[in-house]
Amino acid sequence: MVEPDPRGTSRERQLPVVEETAVVLVPHDPHWTLLYLQEAPVVMSAFRERRATIEHFGSTAVPGLVAKPIIDILVGSIDGLHPSAREIEALETQNYVFLGEDGRRPGRWFWRKRGQLAFNLSLVPLMSDLWEDNLAVRDYLRAHPKQVQQYAEVKLHAVRLSPNSLLGYQNHKRAFMQELRKRAREWADAQGRRARSEA
Fold first, then answer.
1. How many domains are there within the chain?
2. pLDDT averages per 10-residue partition of the chain, 199 residues
3. Is residue 18 part of a domain?
4. Are 110 and 101 in contact (CB under 8 A)?
5. What pLDDT, on a 0 to 100 scale, did the predictor assign at position 84?
6. Per-residue pLDDT at 197
7. CB 126 within 8 A of CB 53
8. Residue 5 located in a structural domain
9. Is 197 among the domain residues?
């Protein structure tokens, strides 16, 4: 059973304020898929008391796409509840830093793991727009190599404009991403693939 919201417990957490500075893009590394497959059981062990599923998403999940060398992991929770204190603590033992709920995307709970390997972890309600849109973009790009090249050019231009601010980098590619998500949703709906997991 998932515990009450950890924000309301007696052990209040001081969430870190994180804004990564240097933005580094590197060519796609096929090894990223293996790193995800190795990390997925570690992540899911923290969520063993809830019904959930897991996916590799983001740029490191798209062959041929330049990316920050950070593996993005998406966990979809069937119950849609916030993380419990027990889940947060279990991830802390695996060096995941809990960053709380995304203020721009309510319902998305976020962790980061940094070190020799780097991971971003998001917990969202399964079948929500946060789940479906991320997988639609991934699958659309995997099926459209020309779009991968166009997105790569946008990313490289954004990092040239804002090499020392992740927020600035994201802002410079925001308009393109909005259009990409729209095209991906339309494509996924037409293909009957939206919200379909790889498993």
1. 1
2. 43 52 92 98 95 96 97 94 94 97 90 95 95 96 97 97 91 96 94 54
3. no
4. yes
5. 95
6. 46
7. yes
8. no
9. no
Record the tokens describing residue 129, joined without a space.
């727009």
What's the pLDDT score for residue 191? 84
Q: Is residue 159 part of a domain?
A: yes
What residue type is assigned to position 119 of the chain? F
| Tokens at 185, concatenated | 């949703």
Question: Nearest Cα to 71, choosing from 90, 58, 87?
Answer: 58
The CATH number linked to 151 is 3.30.460.10
Assigned token pair, 146 = 């020309």
Task: Enter the tokens of residue 70.
Answer: 């950070």
Residue type, 121: L
| Angstrom distance (rounded) from CA 12 to CA 126 | 27
> Rounded to a whole number, what is the distance in angstroms from the first to the last CA of the chain?
25
